[in-house]
Amino acid sequence: GQAVDAGEHPPVVSAILKQQCTELGQELGVDAMDVFAGSGVMQGPNNILGQGYAGAPVGITVEGANIMTRTLIIFGQGATRCHPYAMNTVHAVENEDVAAFRANLLGWLGNFALNIGRTLVRGLTRGWSAGSPVSGPTATYFRRLGWAASRFAVLSDLAMFTMGSKLKARGNLTGRYADALSFMVLGTSALRRWEADGRPPEDLPLVQYSLDYSMTRIQQAFEGIYANFDAPVIGSWLRTVGLAWLRINPLGSTPSDKITAACARAIQQPGAQFDRLTDGVFKPAADQPGAGRLLNAFRLVHAARPAVLKVMAAQKANKLPRGPLPAEIAAEAVRAGVISEAEASTLKLALAARLEAIEVDVFTPEQFYRDSDAEVRPTLESVPQKMAVNA
Fold this sequence. Notes:
The structure is a single chain. Helix 2 (11-36) runs antiparallel to helix 5 and helix 9 runs antiparallel to helix 10. The longest helix is centred in the N-terminal third of the chain and has 27 residues, at 98-124. By secondary structure, this protein is mostly helical. The protein contains 17 helices and no strands. Helix content is 66%, strand content 0%.
């Protein structure tokens, strides 16, 4: 966004964001449907997922289908436009400039040899020799991104040297190059965001998850490139010795359960962090259906948590009956001096908001068939007027 505001036209970065964000959004939408269950399936004003789920393919196929964006634009344009010598070499050929062609070709070969050396050293040191502009817990990610970048540069040159114009027809292969580049950019963006925000410690698990996930995707892309690099001699070496070394010495691994749990906790309570992470995201008022009532329940349940813990502690100590929900014995808890009247009111409000948030939309046949003159189907006459779904 800042680049566009500054008058820049970043085709590769914008293509990465378009392709990856739409596809990640679709995957998250599918996961969200599993969590929301019936309330994500039953259509109506309180369904906050249905339209997004149905519309996800539009973002993927419109304004540049992702299959084309991934296989042609991200790597196809990036390989030439972002290369320090490739585009200059092409221009020298077009202009029949022998001196410029010689200078750029020699520079290209020298850069290729230098990147081979960098990749070997960084692989042996697991990125340590790449250095890091920062210290602390994220330094290792900067080093590993440097390691990944040098390997990507070598593989890009190898592809252009051995396949040339045929590379455009190798969509599966160029797609894997695009994946590697995409997650290097996204990983770098996560690190940049953390630094720009002043390194808030509560965001560190989110940064670690993002980078571990990015490193895993980059590793998978490299493995796919090595296994399918169909060029004489070099391809055979990459598919055997190179692939074995790549798997023995991986860039990273999937996020651990510990980091995943820390990320889940970070987004499950309202406060300054939640507001910062959702900055720029539309949040409807509490009296609005769908997301409005869901966020209202989220805030009320969090506000009631201290009272819930008090009641649960009293239940464990046999001061209050076990089994019922804290809100269901709020009056008894007040009489026992466990909570105050205000806390009891908060418990009841939270429970009511929770029950409301998990209800699905149900319509009468007349409401479902909006045309009042239309004849209602007999099979729908027995539909109940109201029902609640407990989760």
